[in-house]
Amino acid sequence: MSVESEPPLTKDTKLTTTKPGKRQKNPSALGRGVMAISRWFNALPQAMAVAIVILTVLISWELIVRVGGISIIILPSPTNVGSELLIVFSQLAPGGFLAGELWTTIQEILIGFGLACVVGFAIGLWVGQTKFGQKAVMPLFVALEATPKIAFAPVFIAWFGFGLSSKFVMAAFMSIFPVIIGTAAGLAATTEDELKLFKSMKAKAWDVFWKLKMRRALPFIFAGLKIAIVAALTGAIAAEFIGGGIGFGEQIRLASTRLALDRVFALIFILSMLGILLFSLVAWIQNRVTFWDRPDMRLGKKGKKKSLSVTS
Amino acid sequence: MTSSAPHAQLGHTYLIDDVSHVFPGTDVEALKNVTIDVKPGSFISFIGPSGCGKSTLLNAMGGLLEPSHGRVLMNGNSIDGPPDGVGIMFQKATLLPWRTTIENVLLPIELRDGAKAAKDHTDAAMAIINTVGLKGFEHAYPGELSGGMAQRAAICRMLITEPDVLLLDEPFGALDELTRERMDIELQSIASARGATVVLVTHSIPEAVFLSDVVYAMSARPGRISEVIEVDLPRPRDMDTLNLPEFAHYVGRVRTALNKGHEVDNH
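YS: structure for the whole thing
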């Protein structure tokens, strides 16, 4: 695809590539060919486009392993991982031993995420709504955010033991910051006009908070929650790595000590699915709660638009 | 909650007595020695360049701002916070995007008397929505409304508490000229039907003349009233009024007054 630095003819640069006739320079035959291929790829439906990328990666991976003769201990091929994945699935079936480990990890994530939501929201209120919080507390959290939080895992294990609690505390610790930021930023998103409107209607402070500021904050809070839920997963797995002998992270650690990288990859795949599921769940709730913030709201709920009859 | 004070006997709805205002932390005189009285049921306009203090004055009348000097009396009482019986409207419709049109219209009732009272006002809200031509859009969300429709919804929200004083801060300033003229005619009929006292802040000379009984031309730095023009045109005024020679005459007078104010400002 020719990425020329000529000014785009329209705001939508995609459009300009589909209108080669309007270009100033006459591209060479090679250039035209590249552009034609690029157009074909761009026109693919998304599902097919994704499938093509995934297949390309998997096939190249398989080929590299087979042709290069790479040991399974170093890099298992997709087919190795696939067959291991079947074993993992059977162990994940109800009653299987992996199902119990996965449930442990899910518990850590959900408790940690819940803790981060409650405490993070409270701190977000403090930081976003008071001058003191803004001046004194916020810089502390920014400093903390810049610290590699994973380094605290041994600390939590020392404080909370090898059980579940050190894991969900770590998950909460990893995921709390986006909740704080989302809450604080969201509460600041209310406009002067809206505050003036509520003031002119003599709204009580509670109504200003609940019926205006909180509603305005929700899209920001959800943006934070979507980052937080994935961070909670990372935190739980990291804490399981460090110690305790429980959960999915421990299974990955065990598999890697046995040099069973095919199993490691299969387990990572399951965790990836879990992460996508949890993220989608939060995104789904967001779409229901802040339906008015979706870009397609402008199309109207019933999908039809009546024209305004002007009464004069 | 209409105020039951007999303004007719008092002779004025608003008495603005030598009001000056300097915003804290600045030395800009937003208002200087402004004295006006507003008769019940009259329609007045403040017009002038940016920074002449017209919005400041309106905010003081709406209890949203306390002037640093002077008194603002409404129906004989000094103003402490937004007074009852006053409806305010701003240049932006400021509808809450998570509420439907009717839920936005009912917001003032909900904030004042609770959700149940708001529900009881549904019929009243529908009636107002119908009069401004928003019928069929009561369950639409603000994202689905055009600019003019949003302002109509804001008018409904202002009227739901049945105020007898309307304070309008450039209510149609963001609309196109034709829509604005139609909205002006609607505003006139709403005001006269309710017998409401209306205070309008505007940038538009024709709009001020078309709607007002009295036009206050203002000048900036310091913000003050430079000239008072009483508009004696028959009511109800309609599109034909815009073509009357008298209309042009008043527009000319207001423009001259504003230009004079501008020269004083520049000397």
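YS: worth flagging: Residues 91-291 of chain A form a domain with the MetI-like fold fold (CATH 1.10.3720.10).
IM: good catch. Also DSSP finds twelve helices and no strands in chain A.
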